């Protein structure tokens, strides 16, 4: 079960405040959520999930 914000709040997928979320083991900086290839933007991701 997903939280309700998953279906109406695209802002939750973007680190707009530039918080330091650390780095992964491979050195990649953690920031925005990595969306699946079929969603070009967080808004599109939310829109498609609402269908």
Can you walk me through this structure?
The chain has 51 residues and is an all-alpha fold. The protein has one domain (1-51). Helices cover 16% and strands 0% of the residues. The relative contact order is 0.25.
Blueprint (SSEs and pairs):
Elements: H1 42-49
Low-confidence stretches: none
**Mean pLDDT, nearest integer?**
97
Number of domains: 1
Topology, number of strands:
0
**Helix count from the secondary structure assignment:** 1
Secondary-structure element order, N to C: H
Key terms:
mainly alpha; elongated; WD repeat; 1 helix; 51 residues; BEACH_dom
Summary of the model, kept short:
Helix content is about 15%, strand content about 0%. It has one helix and no strands.
């Amino acid at each position: 079960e997903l939280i309700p914000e998953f279906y109406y709040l695209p802002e939750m997928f973007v680190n707009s405040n530039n918080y330091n979320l650390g780095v992964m083991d491979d050195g990649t900086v953690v920031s925005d959520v990595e969306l699946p290839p079929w969603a070009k933007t967080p808004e599109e991701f939310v829109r498609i999930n609402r269908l």
